[in-house]
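ZP: hey, is the MRU complex queued? I don't see it on the tracker
AM: it wasn't, my bad. submitting now with these inputs:
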Amino acid sequence: MKVNGVSYRSIWRDASDGAVRIIDQRWLPHDFRIAVLDSLDDFAAAIRDMWVRGAPLIGATAAYGVAVQMARDPSDAHLDHVHAVLNATRPTAINLAWALNRCRAALRPLHASDRAGAAMRLADAIADEDVEINRRIGEHGLGLIREIAAAKPAGEPVRLLTHCNAGWIATVDWGTATSPMYHAAEAGIPLQVWVDETRPRNQGALTAWELGSHGIAHSYITDNAGGHLMQHGLVDMVITGTDRTTATGDVCNKIGTYLKALAAHDNGVPFYVALPSPTIDWTVADGLREIPIEDRAATEVSHVQGRDAAGGIASVEVTPAGSGVANPAFDVTPARLVTGLITERGICPASRAGLAGLFPELASAESRAS
Ligand SMILES: CSC[C@@H](O)[C@@H](O)C(=O)COP(=O)(O)O
């Protein structure tokens, strides 16, 4: 997608020098900076400390991390070491383990001298596949938005609510929850997007930055505003992303998603989740009990980062000295609260049968493995 009129992906291998570059998301939406990832420490820090973030982008970054490392030392021992280091960076988004396992399984049978080239081709393929998956999610989600628009007086906007940033910078391109929005905008359907701020890290500001860059009307709202807006009939549909969805359709996503799903359920507002297939964890049946929830630093809650009056980026403390702080970063929305899953193969109910119907080969591969 575009930044100041120039097309970017969130991660890419630069044709000029072969280096892996990322949009360094720590400074957005205020500063657009690009960083090079080179050492294993760089890749691990980039994922752990959220220079890159969002489940699909975490997976693609890990794949490029493996590729760069295979050019340095293609041994079995180093492959296992890189897998272990990167896999330990963030526990909740399944795309990380998915990408690392895929890389290791593809590289292990190869002679060491063939691994560097194969690893880089695979990382490029994972990135390209992500773009295509998200484009297709956008096409399927567009159908839902069209239906809502068709039931409204001409010109009245479709009002969507989204949580966190499941936008193009959370993926390689397009985004998951935002892809239907970009497709709707291209189709000329007027939109009004309610963007949850998503404390503590305010990823909603990233979503607002993205939508603003593409001319999509939006309002940045506090996390607690969504229920009120739904009660007053001001939300036609909720679309969120997901960091891990179980084989039974439970959806793990950024903390606060569950409360939005409850409010949507109470108010009869459809609650859809944009789900790329690499985000399905076929090994998990009960999201609430089985998905590890990332416990992040207290400073993310006690402090807020933003632009100060002098134009610099500053961090200020909001909690009183001595207060305890807890920071669970994700929650699980039970499948019963999810109206549907928008995947690259179409929309299905949030259920084992729904997912297996769209992805029979993945569902059966898992049942063979277990
Ligand atoms: C397309 S991204 C889906 C999710 O990864 C997104 O909604 C989210 O929760 C991101 O969390 P983050 O902690 O910023 O990585």
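AM: back. The pocket of MRU is lined by residues 53-56, 93, 164, 166, 170-171, 175-176, 203, 241-243, 253-254, 329 (CB under 6 Å).
ZP: great, adding it to the tracker
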